[in-house]
Amino acid sequence: MQVRILGCSGGIGQKVRTSSYLVDHDILLDAGTGVGDLTLEEMLQIKHIFITHSHMDHVAIIPLLVDTLFSSLKQPIIVHALKETIDALQTHFFNWTIWPDFTELPSLEASVLKFEEMKIGDVYELNGRSVEMIEVNHIVPAVAYAVKTQNSIFVYSGDTTTNDSLWDKLNTYPRLDLMVVESAFANHDIHLANVARHYCPELLAADLKKLRHKPKLGISHLKPGEETLIMDECRKAFGDDWDLHQLSSGDVFQL
Ligand SMILES: [Zn+2]
Ligand SMILES: [Zn+2]
Question: How confident is the model at residue 208 (pLDDT cuts 50, 70, 90)?
């Protein structure tokens, strides 16, 4: 399995993009602004988008992606998410005011966009890869995803703060090769992290102690301008037995 980091920041700016992770060439985990860096040919290979939650930084590009590919798509792009997330997208994005409802274009029977509801614990099989939805703890209903092949497992936390559901689930896996987990804030913003339900290094360090695996660890969703501070705090808080990565758009991991 290949994991390509398209966007991994909490915001935007030069070379900084919001959450979007391309698995192989056809599975997208979240559709933040990083998707906009792909070529048309690369975008056309995306068949499935798994969305962690309804926040703008994770869904912003879906409307533009579908519109851009409209006349080239031979089959619909399928967006997988919780019911609450799909409802939010339909109500607030594809409502004919912000954007057309592409689930009925060019026709209801042959639309370019389809939503498929998943529930916590559901596993979606895709040509030798399976994608499992895992509950996390964010300010809106939110999930993590684990992508598994026969010999590798990649987990992406989406947005979350302290929880047991994710870590308990990961401990049931036989292995964990790469984990992308957020630390949106530095420790001085711990109050904000608690209110907005994100991690800061101190909160994440406490949860990492629950994990029995030692995967490659990519830290995502860093607040623009505080990347160095947050990564320094992570290194101090986690201890030095972690293979820690500050992610950047364009990074590729082969698992
Ligand atoms: Zn969020
Ligand atoms: Zn976010």
Answer: very high
User: Cα(53)–Cα(50) distance, rounded to whole angstroms?
Assistant: 9
> Residue 14 is which amino acid?
Q
Question: For residues 37 and 5, what is the distance between their CA atoms, to the nearest angstrom?
Answer: 11
In the reported structure, the alpha carbon of residue 200 is separated from the centroid of ligand 1 by a whole-number distance in angstroms of: 14
Centre of ligand 1 to C-alpha 58, Å, is 7
Query: How is residue 97 written in tokens?
Result: 């005011």
Residue pLDDT, tens place only, 127-137: 999 999 999 99
The phi, psi pair for 122, rounded to 5°, reads: -65, 145
Q: Which ligand has the shortest distance to the CA of 140?
A: 1
| Residue 119 buriedness (CB in 10 A; 0-12 / 13-18 / 19+) | exposed
- Backbone phi, then psi, for 165, in 5-degree steps? -60, -45
pTM of the model: 0.98
Distance CA 27, CA 243 (A): 25
Q: How close is the Cα of 165 to the center of ligand 1, in Å? A: 17
Ligand whose nearest atom lies closest to the CA of 182: 2
Task: Tell the CATH superfamily of the 2-254 domain.
Answer: Ribonuclease Z/Hydroxyacylglutathione hydrolase-like (3.60.15.10)
Is the Cβ–Cβ distance between 77 and 66 less than 8 Å?
yes
Distance 176 CA to ligand 2 centre (A): 23
CA gap 59, 34 in Å, rounded: 11
